[in-house]
Amino acid sequence: MTIKEIASLAGVSISTVSKIVNNKDQNINPETRSRVLKIVKEYNYTPYGMVKNISSAKTFLLGVLLRTASQSNLMLNGILQAAQEQGYNVLLLDSLNSTDTELKHITSLCKNNVDGVIWEPVDENSSQYEHYFAEQNISVCYINGPDTAYNIDFEKMGYVLTQKLLEYKHSKIACLMKEKSRRSQMVFAGFKKCLFDNQIPYHDKMRLFISDPACCSKVLSHGFSGIVSSHFASSLILYEQMNKLHYYVPSDLSLVSLKDDVREAISFPHISSIKIPYREFGYYVCRNLIQKCEKKDQGEPEYTFVSQCIFDNEDSLDIPSFFRAKKIVVVGSINTDITFNVDWLPQAGKTTTILSSTTTLGGKGANQSVGAAKLGREVSLIGEIGNNTDSTFIFDILEKEQVTTQGVHRDMKAQTGKAYIYIERDGEGTITIMSGANGNLSPEDIQKRQHLFENAGFCLLSTEIPIHTVLEAAKIARKYGAKNIVKPAALKSIPDQLLQNTDIFIPNRKEAAALCPQHTTVEKQAEYFFQKGIEAVIITLGHEGCYLKTAETAKYFPAADFISIDTTGGADAFISALASFLIEGYSLEKAIRIATYAAGFCVSRQGVVPALIDHNTLETHIKKLEPNLLK
After folding, report:
1. Span between the terminal Cα atoms of the chain, in Å
2. Based on C-alpha coordinates, what's the Rg of the chain?
3. Nearest to 540 by CA among 562, 557, 527
4. Same-domain pairing of 140 and 192
5. CA of 371: how far to CAs of 359, 390, 463, in Å?
6. CA–CA separation, 17 vs 631, rounded Å?
7. Cβ atoms within 10 A of the Cβ of 602, count?
8. N or C: which end of the chain has fewer CB within 10 A?
9. DSSP track, 512-528
10. Low pLDDT (below 50) residues in the chain
């Protein structure tokens, strides 16, 4: 900084500055003196007479001048490590994204006679200050700036992020960016290159900005199944906003991101990320600067810093839903079941002694979802529970059984539904139900969660929830190409519109009689329902098996040979097994025969959820008795 430049900044003559810095300012206005001295101090001006005394000896002091130091912790650690290993000290300065502040810091570094500087220019105008370092022979290594600056290879990292999504069979991919971000632009360049190398056409809709209020709606409207994000903070925002729209990572959307050092402590959500190698980069640049200061021949340096791109996890990655095996959606009641074992069922005017009691997860929706999940199916459950302690109990069991609970909602104003079940010694029972939150599941709730029907093969519906909600779920399931299996529990009548949207109708003997009182035989009741436009009618008959009516077939199937202990969940076990094996490609008749075994296992044990059979045990048992039944 020269006296002429100081005079220009202060708006005074060169002689005025000279008089002030040499203490010959007796006749100068105090206000002018204060202004000049302030600028002299801010810009570290050194009078020529003092400059002549500055030693040319090495100071073993390095300067680090960053655009902003707020997010560079690990890079600074790398710089310090390299400096200390070589016997250097470091002077750190932050330009705060201001060229004015940057110039003040440059003059400070010159005044301190540093041997070299790691400089991150604020913008393209910063180059006008280069001459200050050149005049004092101070070596400079630029970072994140001009062509001769050292840079982390964000383009390669963007390429690797995109390649990971391609490995998971995604082709509808978008790049989530920050506006006016150099890192975002480099990641985006790698994103486009990876698409080109894999023959995937690029269009401008693939570029998203987290600052755009319509960002999430664009993800949905354009059908993106995978997102590459240049900033972890942007990933977190997208993650939370998509959750609010009931779209979830990774079942509905795969997400990969870069992660910087300020996000190191975040353990949830588990977004699959590549850590930006700031520490290694800082170490690399500082070592190169020291070699430059000591005039060691290093040849032409590699300005682009390349490191291994390793994902910390793959938890937010899955193949697109349309590549997965068809899943099952269950819409129905979720209860806590309180089961009482008694000698005889309660009767008016008589006292019944309870021999024992248990509390388990229940409700036809919950039972069927767990039954299908145990048989190896991907299952999404849609239902309502209360905000009491039962809700935590329910979520814990569903999570343990690997049922997807994104469609299960806590109703803050209701209790969780309860079922009080009385079981006699012969296994027959009776149930009383308090609907609770189940009664609040509305058609609007189904509409909000309709994305859960994507890639569904079957929708299992039971009528312990409002009938208009069941009808809405049946319509939406059909819209997404799923077939509906309806269990008409606790109904005195059933709308024809629901029957018209039903593919497989499964009442038990009593339910069939209640809904079709004009006919007294199972065959005629099944025929009545079939004539309503249903593809297949199956009337379950307890220990007598079931009866099937289709356009091609009308026949009885015997029950599997099991001793009945508790018949409560037999139908739920049957339905979940029927849907599971139909999805595997079995014929309806074979699936029914397999389902009778699943029901037999269930009724031979106490309770429902604990009694539901898993895929391996079921198939092992069937192979011993009917090996030709299985594929």
Report:
1. 86
2. 36
3. 557
4. no
5. 18, 20, 18
6. 97
7. 30
8. C
9. HHHH-TT--SHHHHHHH
10. 52-54
